[in-house]
Amino acid sequence: MSLKEVTIGYDNVTKVKVGRKNPLAFIGGPCAIESKDHCFMMADKISEICNRVKIPWIFKSCYDKDCRSSPDSFHGLGVEGGLDVLSQIRKNFKVPVVSDFSDPSWAPATGEVCDLVQVPAYLCRQTSILRAAAETKRPILLKKGQFMSPWNMKNSVRKIEAFGNDNIILADRGTFFGYNMLVNDMRCFPIMLETGYPVCYDATHSIQLPTSMGNISGGQREFIPHLVRAAVACGINVLFMEVHNDPPNALSDANTVLDIKFLENILVQAKIMHETRQEILEKYGEDNVHPE
Amino acid sequence: MSTQNRISIKEVMLPLGKFPVLSEKSIFTEALEEMCNFKLGIACIVNQTGTLEAVITDGDIRRKILNVQKPMPAFFVDFAIDHGIKNPHFINENMEINQALNLMEEYEIWDMPVLNEEEKLIGLLHLHPVVKALLR
User: Fold this and answer.
1) How far apart are the CA of B63 and the nearest CA of chain A, in angstroms?
2) In terms of pLDDT, which residue wins out, A39 or A67?
3) Domain boundaries, position B101
4) Alpha carbons within 13 A on the beta-carbon side of A283
5) What is the domain count for chain B?
6) Which is higher by pLDDT, A116 or A77?
7) Which of A39, A94, A245, B45 is the right S-S partner for B54, CB 3.0 to 4.6 Å?
8) In a domain, A254, yes or no
9) Residue A53 exposure: Cα atoms within 13 Å on the Cβ side
10) Are A291 and B73 in contact (CB < 8 Å)?
11) A148 CA: distance to closest CA in chain B (Å)
């Protein structure tokens, strides 16, 4: 299996290379674009932290959250308004940006602006969505559905490849464990890495308790640091966490977003873990306990 | 001249269409299905130009299942070639049948892909038709 490298960023943003022996990268931002001012404030704070930690990063915020549990929940600013904010973020901060898209017709506009296009977990096997993502020609962040086995993600990867795109990052955001509960199977990272593509851990969605609070999702943030350390030790290339300055009042995923006051501490640990893992593998050899 | 020398490989081999041939993108499930369809314990895997890339056999599958104890759905979605033998033994269409039989005996196998001079897969030498021909 040959490992692939994916480069995120076009024009004059700071490009982020992920995969192989590249440094750990971070994808972060508020779950939904709440307003231009909020996005700029968050990008500014995250940028400061990532500069201090010296971790390459990509700004994440979605323009339309189409999978909310309630029809009354905040959806976002919409395609046009949201992408305009993301476009300004990338110009102002010189940082690549990512948003998901939930309808194939939104893909061209998303790819026009975003450096990385995200396929939502619930839609990870929808051929029309995968085709639309592939046709943007941008790198794709493909979330593993909570209902999917890591090996079955190979089918989604093959669909994207068949549509002409071979810049993919596979992300785990937890797997359903009965109802209203997710767990992380850390074996999913080496399994998804069998595709050769870089792998990502979405920590804040992994601790979600899906729709456990009636018409919104709950979450157990206290497990984020533990799970991040475990995922990095299992070989992830990218860490994904949604962050917010005021989680209780976040307009989307209030129960799972990480309070930004904890971000630096977690990123520092993740970076050290990642570097240590690479040193260990260089010293003692790559993992080689494979059955014949 | 012995009976063996009078029989050509082309005469007794299974031609294309009579044994399982898969592409490099065929998944494990497809390999099993094709092997069942043809009732043969081997499938040949070729690239887009028809060059033999690998074979997968009943024996490979048995050993894999015993040694790699991952769930069957994880096997089924893998590319068949990842569980096959790359650089497999093969015979040339112009080889004499007794040479082929000697190779089968040496390698303890009873199926060998047959390649033409351009190294394209053109058939499969399966022991049963050979035995039948020899007994005629």
Assistant:
1) 9
2) A39
3) 3-135
4) 6
5) 1
6) A116
7) B45
8) yes
9) 25
10) no
11) 11
pLDDT in tens, A220-233: 999 999 999 999 99
pLDDT at B67 over 80: yes
Measure CB to CB from residue B77 to each of A152, A291, A292 and give the nearest one: A152
Judging contacts by C-beta atoms under 8 Å, the chain B residues touching residue A149 are: 71, 73-74
Residues of A in contact with B25 (CB under 8 A): 158
Domain presence at residue A15: yes
Residues of B in contact with A154 (CB under 8 A): 77-78
- Quote the number of domains for chain A: 1
Judged by a CB distance cut-off of 8 A, whether residue B63 touches chain A is: yes
Q: What is the CATH number of the domain that holds A92?
A: 3.20.20.70
Q: Is residue A274 part of a domain?
A: yes
If you search the block for the tokens 């093969």, which residue do you land on? B90
Whether B3 shows a pLDDT value over 70: the answer reads: no
Q: Containing domain of residue A21, as a range?
A: 6-283
Residue B2 CA to chain centroid, in angstroms?
27
**Which SS3 state, helix, strand or coil, does residue A118 take?**
strand
Cα B99 to Cα B1, B5, B118, B129, distances in angstroms: 15, 10, 20, 16
Q: Are B68 and A291 an interchain contact pair (Cβ–Cβ within 8 Å)?
A: yes
Q: A23 lies in a domain?
A: yes
User: Two tokens at A184?
Assistant: 């992380």
